[in-house]
Amino acid sequence: MDFLIPANSKKSLLIFSLFTMFDLILFGTGIGLTLLLLLLVSPSSIVGAVIDLAPAVITGFLVLPIPNYHNTLTVIREVYTFYTNRQRFVWKGWCVKDAFKETKK
């Protein structure tokens, strides 16, 4: 028996099968800001170096691919949406009453 397993269509829409265009722009902006900070404010201490490298590290963390989700930014966005938007989940199962409602109409 041979089975045809379809390719993951969502993953094929991603750049390098990992990133969206927004992810690359976000990470590129973080890298650019880090390079600008390194040129303008030369780090003379550990604290200065951490501040200069912070944009690249933060944006790198946000676009880091994680299992079962596209990236960390997607997880944060989903958690925020889950806890801030009102959600109403309607469960409709096999019920005798639903059958009677449909026949009366």
Q: Can you give a write-up of this model?
A:
The chain has 105 residues and is mostly helical. It is elongated, with a radius of gyration of 24 Å.
Summarize the structure.
This protein is mostly helical.
Radius of gyration: 24 Å
> If helices are DSSP runs of H or I spanning 4 or more residues, what is the number of helices?
5
Return residue spans where pLDDT drops below 50 for at least 5 consecutive residues. Answer: none
Broad structural category: mainly alpha
Helical proportion, percent range = 55-70%
The profile of the biggest β sheet is: none
Estimate what percentage of residues fall within beta strands: under 5%
Please trace the helix and strand order, writing H or E for each element: HHHHH
Give the mean pLDDT. 78
Q: What general form does the structure show?
A: elongated
Record field, number of beta strands: 0
The separation of the N and C termini measures 48 Å
Chart the SSEs and their pairings.
Elements lengths: L8 H4 L8 H20 L5 H17 L9 H13 L11 H9 L1
Keywords:
about 100 residues, mainly alpha, 5 helices
